């Protein structure tokens, strides 16, 4: 259950110099794969999948999901404020060529045609948000790794947007979002560590760690495989030698060519599939 504090944003959103083109860029932070819709829904579905014994983790995910919904509201406000700076002819003379030109060259056309100069649940190219980017596997460790990645790419996007604007109000809002991404990366890593041995960050590796070790092929579970046709030597890097990150094995270096090659040995296709090409008679 969610409650909305009507009329109040989580953080101040001010635009000193409205910029329709920047509004288009901000759409990526709303409906893009790095955006706030993605993480808000990701955290919600992860939380809803957790059993009662993980209530503290469920609570943390719900808290942050609701925070991310607030970020969407902030960004939608920022888009609308930037679109308030659309040329006068765009707002008052929608049918004239100059307005159409401004819409096509400076913003998403649908921001005029479909939303009346407001934000939409789309990315910066106008592509509608797609929930296929949401990761909610049901495995808490796997989900935390996905969350760190999501917050990392979200922070990267926010820093790029910060570099794209000279508007002090927009820089301030983005600085806030960047700071929250810093916290969220750290909190998910802390939750990940809390799942296992506090002194061993990777105690839960590999994910899922419930699968019996003896059921995986022991010859290959810690071997870095080179597929380079030039047959390089072991580069002697941390991922090709020494103890594995989960402390359950030792890294090694192998070459794909040394494994031996086998033919696929596929059976002839079912004749009803009509895959065969009819052979021509020589004469």
TrEMBL record:
<dbReference type="InterPro" id="IPR009078">
    <property type="entry name" value="Ferritin-like_SF"/>
</dbReference>
<comment type="similarity">
    <text>Belongs to the manganese catalase family.</text>
</comment>
<dbReference type="InterPro" id="IPR007760">
    <property type="entry name" value="Mn_catalase"/>
</dbReference>
<protein>
    <submittedName>
        <fullName>Mn-containing catalase</fullName>
    </submittedName>
</protein>
<feature type="compositionally biased region" description="Basic and acidic residues">
    <location>
        <begin position="271"/>
        <end position="283"/>
    </location>
</feature>
<dbReference type="InterPro" id="IPR012347">
    <property type="entry name" value="Ferritin-like"/>
</dbReference>
<feature type="compositionally biased region" description="Polar residues">
    <location>
        <begin position="238"/>
        <end position="250"/>
    </location>
</feature>
<feature type="region of interest" description="Disordered">
    <location>
        <begin position="226"/>
        <end position="283"/>
    </location>
</feature>
<dbReference type="Pfam" id="PF05067">
    <property type="entry name" value="Mn_catalase"/>
</dbReference>
<dbReference type="InterPro" id="IPR039377">
    <property type="entry name" value="Mn_catalase_dom"/>
</dbReference>
């Amino acid at each position: 259950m969610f409650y909305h504090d009507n009329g109040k944003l989580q953080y101040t959103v001010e635009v000193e110099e409205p910029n329709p083109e920047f509004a288009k860029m901000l759409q990526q932070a709303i409906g893009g794969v790095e955006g706030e819709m993605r993480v808000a829904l990701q955290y919600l579905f992860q939380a809803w999948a957790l059993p009662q014994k993980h209530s503290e983790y469920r609570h943390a995910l719900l808290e942050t999901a609701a925070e991310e919904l607030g970020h969407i509201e902030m960004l939608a406000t920022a888009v609308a404020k930037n679109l308030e700076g659309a040329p006068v002819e765009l707002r008052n003379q929608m049918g004239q060529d100059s307005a159409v030109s401004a819409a096509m060259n400076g913003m998403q056309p649908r921001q005029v045609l479909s939303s009346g100069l407001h934000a939409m649940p789309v990315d910066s190219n106008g592509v509608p948000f797609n929930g296929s980017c949401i990761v909610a596997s049901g495995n808490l460790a796997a989900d935390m790794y996905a969350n760190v990645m999501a917050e990392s790419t979200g922070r990267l996007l926010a820093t790029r947007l910060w570099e794209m604007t000279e508007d002090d109000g927009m820089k301030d809002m983005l600085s806030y979002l960047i700071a929250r991404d810093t916290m969220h990366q750290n909190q998910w890593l802390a939750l990940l560590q809390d799942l296992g041995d506090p002194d061993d960050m990777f105690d839960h590796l590999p994910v899922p760690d419930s699968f019996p070790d003896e059921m995986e092929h022991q010859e290959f579970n810690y071997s870095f495989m080179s597929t380079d046709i030039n047959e390089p030597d072991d580069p002697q890097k941390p991922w090709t030698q020494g103890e594995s990150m989960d402390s359950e094995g030792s890294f090694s270096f192998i070459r794909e060519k040394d494994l031996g090659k086998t033919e696929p040995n596929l059976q002839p296709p079912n004749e009803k599939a009509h895959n065969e090409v009819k052979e021509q008679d020589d004469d």
